[in-house]
Amino acid sequence: TEQLIRKKSEHNELIIGTLEELSLHQEDIERIEYIGHWCRELKILLLQSNLIPKLENLNRLKKLVYLNVAINNIERIENLEALESLQKLDLTLNFIGELTSVESLRTNYNLRELFLTGNPCTDYPGYREYVITVLPQLDHLDGKEVTRSDRLRAAKEFPSLRERIVQLEALHKIERDEQRIRVRQSIAEQEESVRELPDNDERKASAFWQQKSEHCPETRIQMAKFSRRSKEQTTGGGNLSKPDDQKRTRKLFAECGRPYSLNEPRINFEFRDEPDRFELDLHVYKYLDTSLMDVDAQPNYVRVTIKGKVFQLALKQDIQTDRSTCQRSQTTGHLLVVMPKLNPERIVKPLEEKRTARSSKQGIKSQSTCPDLKGPVDIRNICEGSNKTKQNRINEDEVPELI
């Protein structure tokens, strides 16, 4: 479907008209329909591990270089003559028994690599010699290089070789028809035995997986159906077992309005509390686009949203939001948020340091006139007083306590 192709073309900004590479493996695709109409610029098409029974609707892909349809249900090579740029074709582990259908690739003059490993036709005597003779443009067959001596040897045996292969194909068709009938009867009997069981019963699936089966397209289709059904049941049951009220909700504030501190993206950070400002250094990923980040500085917290995940840090003092700045390093990618405090701490230099600084500017050596203190100071006798002051001193025991 178009929706599936656009989903797989994220690397091309969901544009399928100019798509050059498309991977649709393991999607249970049962037929090739519209790829040739929608993606004419394709150069690489990967369709392995699906349920495709026939090669069709690919004649418009004039620029296709590599086609991979391994592990499918293909029984015949056909409808590839129009792929004039095709250089590599992978048909590994299919059900190709008609080896003479390889002759349809003669017009693909750019074809250099062909893989037929795992197909019934590879068991025919003289299989490799026949393919080498029919397709002289090949450089590698099943991953093995084709040499000049191999071609000369195969050309001598080709007249009698083709007659033998045609006979083997006829026998294979008869066996294939008999196999198709046997498998259909086996599938019908198996479904009849478990018809009374409900669809979600595990015994129905276990009975299918435990029975003996033949290696054929019909069996592969049945296996895909049971796998898809069990996956849907597992997914559906998982969704039912998680009610909406049990979903985790993100809490950024307490009930009283106090902001929480949380780190959903789990990135490292450094926080510095300077006398006049707060500095937050977030170790953001170097190659993360800046458009995926959002910074919000409020009076008592700062919040950085990175790809939908919230990093929030509560501040113990109010800040000046209008003077806060945010910068990002072009070398490391780190994000630096500087937030000036609303009420910065005042740093008062000692009087002695001021005198030293002033005298150093004037070139005068400062000498301390104050003696060094060697014990506690009696603040009551600092000022010179007379005996009258001592006599009129208030008794502290009579003073009531402060309320």
From TrEMBL:
SUPFAM superfamilies attached to this UniProt entry: L domain-like
GO BP annotation list: outer dynein arm assembly
Keyword Kinase: no
A cellular component annotation (GO) from this entry: cytoplasm
Domain spans labelled Dynein axonemal assembly factor 11-like CS: 230-341
Keyword Repeat appears in the UniProt entry: yes
Subcellular location: Cell projection, Cilium; Cytoplasm
Gene3D superfamilies given in the database record: Ribonuclease Inhibitor
Biased composition regions of type Polar residues, renumbered to the chain: 359-370
Keyword field: Cell projection, Cilium, Cytoplasm, Leucine-rich repeat, Repeat
Region (Disordered) location: 227-248, 353-375
Family of this protein: Belongs to the tilB family.
Name listed for the protein in its UniProt record: Dynein axonemal assembly factor 11-like CS domain-containing protein
Organism the protein comes from: Anopheles christyi
